[in-house]
Design goal:
131 residues; disordered N terminus; globular
Length: 131
């Protein structure tokens, strides 16, 4: 997805706004699927989105309990997908790139007892694995 296609005024303020914004981004310039999906049952924030198609996309960020968050769009709804638990509070995902449905990379930071470290996750089409 080209960054030039993302509206300049796009901001993600919370789940309600994130659901609408991510739905609009999914199709990279085409009309969003109707009805638009709004995520309201989870609390947290989103930092990045990557869409391979209108029926396959990922959004990442942090839950309100300060754990990494990964959401998967399968064309009709968003589903939270478990990520490997990386240490203590304050861990998050800040970027995601979908190369194909079975090759997705997410990056961020994991906090632990010895400080923070880079967090790199790979989706193989079934599960996230930490590298």
């Amino acid at each position: 997805m080209s960054m030039a296609r993302i509206p300049r005024k796009l901001t993600i303020l919370g789940w309600a706004a994130a659901g609408i914004c991510v739905s609009a981004l999914l199709v990279a310039g085409a009309k969003p699927p109707a009805p638009q999906t709004t995520i309201t049952s989870l609390a947290g924030s989103l930092a990045a989105v990557s869409a391979g198609s209108a029926a396959d996309a990922w959004a990442v960020g942090q839950t309100r309990t300060q754990r990494p968050l990964a959401l998967h769009w399968k064309g009709t709804s968003w589903t939270q997908v478990p990520t490997p638990a990386p240490g203590g509070f304050g861990s998050f995902l800040s970027g995601v790139t979908e190369i194909s449905p079975a090759n997705v990379w997410a990056v961020g930071s994991a906090n632990g007892s010895t400080g923070s470290a880079s967090l790199v996750l790979h989706w193989n089409g079934t599960t996230w694995t930490r590298f």
